[in-house]
Amino acid sequence: MNAHDLPLEEIDVSQPELFENNTVGDYFARLRKEAPVHYCARSRFGSYWSITRYADIMAVDSNHKVFSSDAKKGGIQIVDMPKGMERKNFINMDPPEHDEHRNVVSPIVKPANLANMEGLIRNHVEEILDSLPRKQTIDWVELVSIELTTRMLATLFDFPFEDRKLLTYWSDVASMDLRTGGEINTEAKRLKELEKCLEYFNRLYAERANKEAKVDLVSMLAHSSIEMSQQEFLSTLILLIVGGNDTTRNSISGGLLALSENPSEWSKLKNNPDLVKSMVPEIIRWQTPLTHMRRTTTEDTEIAGVKIAAGEKVIMWYLSGNRDETAIPDAQRFIIDRARPRQHLSFGFGVHRCVGNRLAEMQLRVLWEEILERQLDIEVVGPGVRNYSNAVRGFTSLPVVIN
Fold first, then answer.
1. What is the pTM of this model?
2. Alpha helices in 223-343 (DSSP H)
3. Burial code of 261-295, b = ≥16 C-beta within 10 A, e = fewer?
4. Which residues contact 383 (CB under 8 A, 6 or more apart)?
5. What span, in angstroms and rounded, lies between the C-alpha atoms of 29 and 153?
6. 295-302 long-range contacts, Cβ below 8 Å, gap at least 24?
7. Architecture of the domain made up of 8-402
8. What is the pLDDT of residues 234-264, one digit of tens each?
């Protein structure tokens, strides 16, 4: 059944299947046109409101007093966490608590630190690209997208490099949909697996606490004046791991696929490599690696003329906002030389805007600069396998051949 066959009130854009088969865009397009503030009474995640237009999403995202991120009120995911298992960290806190916790880690992405990281990122990219087999099918996700982001995560945490793949594993465990049929199919099993992450980082934390403070995330947490429970420490770690992994990893994969599907844009890039600078934010808009964020209303309110009661679950669909033609000209097209390429919602808006957005952009920019420098002919040779998830929009594999 397609998006226009269903009665409007029966549309449920939270179904992971719609993201896995990449058909959710048709449903978002209909909602933006007919019901930009849409109520879904029944879904596997309970009832919820969908906000699908760019301007309305910005209005919600910038009003933390009426639209709360607090874990105890529901947090930032469409799925409701079981009582006592809420993941409390700065992304699911409201100000002023949010600001205090975010400020502990935000110095790692100050301009001076980013400038120092660029050379290291370039070294990683050079090693990865130069090691790729030629003239045979390889998985771009595994050998490039995952490898680069995992290396950077290890750098940000000053994590033992030989164990870096644990970071990717913990990121996948934390963000996976429990309905995929794997061994980890309950929140309790997920938490048990993530306790191994906590044990590992507790050792690093103890070591860093007794040494001079350095510019890495574990050291910053260890030398902070903010006291965290073990649950809060684990939750903060998972936020930083997933945040440092998903956006960049899936934009690397999605960007290559977008260029493959739009050969005129790839030709444009090859003829003018300086377009990398505007292409990077366009890739991030086009991919929208994190599709949504949830808020909970703290009082009766109104969005675009629609009344919403206090205590309601409100979902900001960033993926839909990034395709809103009323805000972004030619939003349905991938255009690498847009006049305003950073006009997108992929990093969120307001106090919760992604703390690592410039680092994510830098990794993508350096990667594509080095691809162009080597004049690599990368051919996508099969369909990518998309995540089964309504939150993380990405790929588990993407077959390519480098000629």
1. 0.92
2. 230-261, 263-271, 276-287, 318-321
3. ebeebbebbeeeeebbebbbbbbbbbbbbbbbbbb
4. none
5. 36
6. 295/60, 295/61, 295/67, 295/68, 295/69, 295/74, 295/76, 296/67, 296/68, 296/70, 296/73, 296/74, 297/66, 297/67, 297/68, 298/65, 298/66, 298/67, 298/68, 298/73, 299/66, 301/66, 301/67
7. Orthogonal Bundle (1.10)
8. 888 888 888 878 889 999 999 999 999 999 9
What phi, psi does 315 have (nearest 5°)? Answer: -110, 120
Torsions phi, psi for 79 (to 5 deg)? -75, 135
Report the C-alpha gap between 256 and 239 in whole angstroms.
26
Q: What is the model's pLDDT at position 85? A: 59
Query: How far is the C-alpha of 316 from the C-alpha of 372, rounded, in Å?
Result: 36
Total length of the chain? 403
**Cis peptide, bond prior to residue 96, ω within 30 of zero:** yes
Residues 6+ away with beta carbon under 8 Å from 174: 190, 194, 238, 241, 242
Q: How large is the average pLDDT for residues 301-327?
A: 97
In DSSP terms, 40 is beta-bridged to: 48
Beta bridge partners of 39: 49
| CA–CA distances in Å: residue 167 to residues 203, 207, 378 | 15, 19, 28
Q: How large is the C-alpha radius of gyration of the chain? A: 21
DSSP string covering 169-180, please? Answer: HHHHHHHS-GGG
Whether 80 and 46 have beta carbons less than 8 Å apart is answered as yes
Q: How far apart are CA 174 and CA 242, in angstroms?
A: 8
Distances (CA, A) of 193 to 87, 92, 113, 121, 185: 15, 22, 33, 30, 11
Q: Which two tokens mark 185?
A: 């199919």
CA 237 to chain centre: 15
pLDDT in tens, 7-62: 999 999 999 999 999 999 999 999 999 999 999 999 999 999 999 999 999 999 99
Query: Which 3-state string (H, E, C) describes 200-239?
Result: HHHHHHHHHHCCCCCCCHHHHHHCCCCCCCHHHHHHHHHH
Q: CA-CA distances (angstroms) from residue 220 to 166, 215, 382? A: 21, 7, 43
Which of 76, 108, 79, 80 is CA-nearest to residue 90?
Answer: 76
